[in-house]
Amino acid sequence: MLFTLVKEVLGTFVGLLPIANPFSAAAVFVAITQRFTAAQARGQARRACAYMAIVLLVSLFAGALIMKFFGISLPALRIAGGLIVARIGFDMLSPEPDPEVGETQREEILHMTDLAFTPLAMPMLSGPGSIAVTISMAAGADNLWDYGAIALGIVLVAFASWLVLRSSRRVVARLGSTGMTALTRVMGFLLVCVGVQFIGDGVLHILSDMGTPGAAR
Fold this sequence. Notes:
By secondary structure, this protein is mainly α. Helices cover about 85% and strands about 0% of the residues.
């Protein structure tokens, strides 16, 4: 049982970390906290990761209720989540130039006093992809131990994200633009793999429910 729980914790960590992608968020974090003192920037990083954990934990424990309320089946959620995750992965593999930000928007961002929830926690660290994957994991949980293992994995992802953001200036300087691009593409490839796996699991589940095991094979 212990091995199964550890496997679930690691599976949650490995599945969510590339989607949260704190290394990509680190570059943005450095840019939007330039006017902050070091202590203020660390405070923003700490609150952003706490908000991220709260958002994903709420998605975890309320996921089943949300699915039941909207009448969403687990295979449908897996397919939808897989499409979202795969799309994010493809965008990371072939990134497009950043859209031009208007002067008004730029000024608003630079003069915000609290960036922890928006845009750091939402949508950068805990966006639609992270939420979809978390709800999918919740739908596959069978008991409280499973929920606890997934919750621990979420907390570990938030902690790892905090470590990256806290050291974001050193991380960005050490990796450089080439290193950040390479890391983003590696994580993008992993996300595509995760998305395809989710889609495949959902399709196989639907075929199995239709009583066509030959087709599922």
